[in-house]
Amino acid sequence: MTMDISKNNNLKIRQWVQVGSTLVGNGYLKGFKTGDIYQGALKKGCIPFLNCYSCPGALFSCPIGAIQNTFSEAGAKFDINAIPYLVIGFLIFIGTLVGRAVCGWLCPFGFFQDLLNKIPSKKFRGFSWLKYLKYVILLLFVVILPVFWIDDFDMGVPTFCKYICPAGTLEGGIPLVLLQPTLRAQLGWLFTWKIGLLFLLVVLSVFFKRPFCRWFCPLGAFYGLFNKFSLLQIKLDSNKCINCGKCSRVCPMNLDVPKEINTSDCIRCYDCKKDCPFKAISY
Amino acid sequence: MFLRKRIILTLVMFIISLILIFVGINKKEFESYYRKAINVCTQCIGIG
Predict the structure, then answer these.
(1) Is A177 on the interface with B (CB under 8 A)?
(2) What is the DSSP letter of A154?
(3) pLDDT of A110-159, one tens digit each?
(4) CA distance B14 to B9
(5) How far, in Å, CA of A99 to CA of A92, rounded?
(6) Chain B: nearest CA to A4, how far in angstroms?
(7) In terms of CA atoms, which chain A residue is nearest residue B36?
(8) How far apart are CA A280 and CA A242, in angstroms?
(9) ipTM for this prediction
(10) Percentage of chain A lying above the pLDDT 70 cut
(11) Alpha carbons B7 and A227: distance in angstroms, whole number
(12) What are phi and psi of A208, to 5 degrees?
């Protein structure tokens, strides 16, 4: 009984933190009424999770958007000065501090997927090799293409934001199109493609745990590189572990926890810690 | 990973991150993020 209460408390605490970070990241509530976006000084800073800066409520810049924008602005004149040092340094700092805990506790799009997965249905694990796709997306769509794909205006193309990011469609595209009639008149194949991609992810999220985080998210891929040596770690006491599998069943990233603890896909949610009947998992 | 090696790696990464942040602030990169973030990004929202 005590264990159940503790487990529920952990889930509730994490959900409240996720709600809080979603509100902090998108606290310009006036924007949702008027269709304007926030133009204050807070947008000089990046938030540590994926949050489209074109969301009417966004108070901060998106780190993945900022990286691509810096590359894009340089266009054909790309050199060492066009590297986004500030945001890369910021992401390395956060990654070294907490690893992928940002994904588990703060990211609104991760929270969105967690909620969708609560819809009762048959659940599937998915192919494990798909986890490597997010590294390809990070390298190709966030770095290589924005640097080398130059458009007619001599600017790089922010390919992840433009062709993939479902968070941008959900938080920025849909609200702005609903609120601004002038934007509605400009919709074309790109919007249809992005809505289709978002719809696909919504459906996948019902049947698979966090498909975007596990297979597609470039920010999660970046933070995951720091999981092995970040200050925040998860420890498994192998003397106490009996391999009952309870931890793996509750893991929102579908990890085999005893074997994959602290790997690049662990989002430090600590749901496994709370569910372990033998207290084998600790901070 | 051995504890000592892990601590050294963590420290090195913290130092690298702080150097990069310092360089970025010195270059006023935040002004570039700001310019982009205060206008509706038609590419991000799927208009092109």
Answers:
(1) yes
(2) S
(3) 999 999 999 999 999 998 899 999 999 999 999 999 999 998 888 889 99
(4) 9
(5) 9
(6) 33
(7) A69
(8) 9
(9) 0.93
(10) 96
(11) 13
(12) -125, 145
Q: Which of A74, A239, A54, A283 is nearest to B46 (CA)?
A: A54
Residues 120-139 (A) with a CB less than 8 A from some CB of B = none
CB A85 to CB B47 under 8 A? no
Rounded to whole angstroms, the Cα distance separating A245 from A189 reads 45
Q: Which residues contact A104 (CB under 8 A, 6 or more apart)?
A: A14, A110, A252, A267, A268, A269
Q: Is A33 helix (H, G, I), strand (E, B) or coil?
A: helix
CA of A280 to nearest chain B CA: how many angstroms apart? 19
Residue of A nearest to B23 (CA): A85
Which structure tokens are listed for B4? 């000592």
Cross-chain residue pair A86–B44, CB shorter than 8 Å:
no
Site from B16, B21, B45, B47 to mutate, A interface, most A CB atoms within 10 angstroms: B45
Q: What is the mean pLDDT of residues A209-234?
A: 96
* Token duo for residue B13: 């990464």
The residue count of chain B comes to 48
The torsion angles phi and psi of A254, rounded to 5 degrees, stand at: 60, 35
Residue A67, exposed/middle/buried by CB under 10 A (0-12, 13-18, 19+)?
buried
- Burial degree of A206 (CB within 10 A; 0-12, 13-18, 19+): middle
**Hunting for tokens 């931890």 — which residue is that?**
A247
Which H or E element spans position A281?
strand A281-282
Identity of residue A167: A
CB contact (8 A) between residue A173 and residue B45: yes
At A149-206, the pLDDT tens digits run 998 888 889 999 999 999 999 999 999 999 998 888 888 999 999 999 999 999 999 9
Return the residue of B nearest to A71 by Cα: B32
Q: What is the pTM of this model?
A: 0.92
